[in-house]
Amino acid sequence: MRPADEALIVIDVQNDFCPGGALAVAGGDQIIPRINALMDEFRTVVFTQDWHPANHASFAANHPGAAPFSLTEMPYGPQVLWPVHCVQGTVGAAFHPALRTDPAQLVIRKGFRPGIDSYSAFFENDRQTATGLEGYLRNRGIARLVLVGLATDYCVAFSAVDAARLGFATTLLEGACRAIDLDGSLATARSETRAAGVIWAD
Questions:
Q1: Which of 52, 97, 105, 160 is close enough to 198 for a disulfide, judged by CB 3.0 to 4.6 Å?
Q2: Is position 155 annotated as part of the catalytic site?
């Protein structure tokens, strides 16, 4: 069992991010057995869940003429326009059926505000709107985090950078993540997370 001040953060292991889903990450389901086993090592386990309304501003379908994976400008900066995914209450938004969900003590839903996307487990993409996760972890006496899930170069990396900036000792367990790698996004994520002080481990 890991020390009591260490928590496992499981990012967005949902149907739409796994093979067959609307925004599938290659091999996304391959990490589930390892995550299931890891949960037994931690006293504190937190899940995040992408949870979008159908009219979400980050969906290309809500921008006439815009192609998926193109960029647009939002009030908070550049935003990738994604295929419709993880719509509230749909099968795609549900956790993958092979994922053990009982060990999770908290589920942080993110991306539910129609006008702003949310990659990080800690802040929405304006970098200001907090999810409440930091306070939860502090109240539990957590000082160290291990991050796993989908996708390495988006929600996992953004969460890891925020965790490190908030003062948590943060490890990204790459072997229990999978990446989209859109236009070199994995290399960018690797450099940005390391610059923030995140440790990459297998």
A1: 160
A2: yes
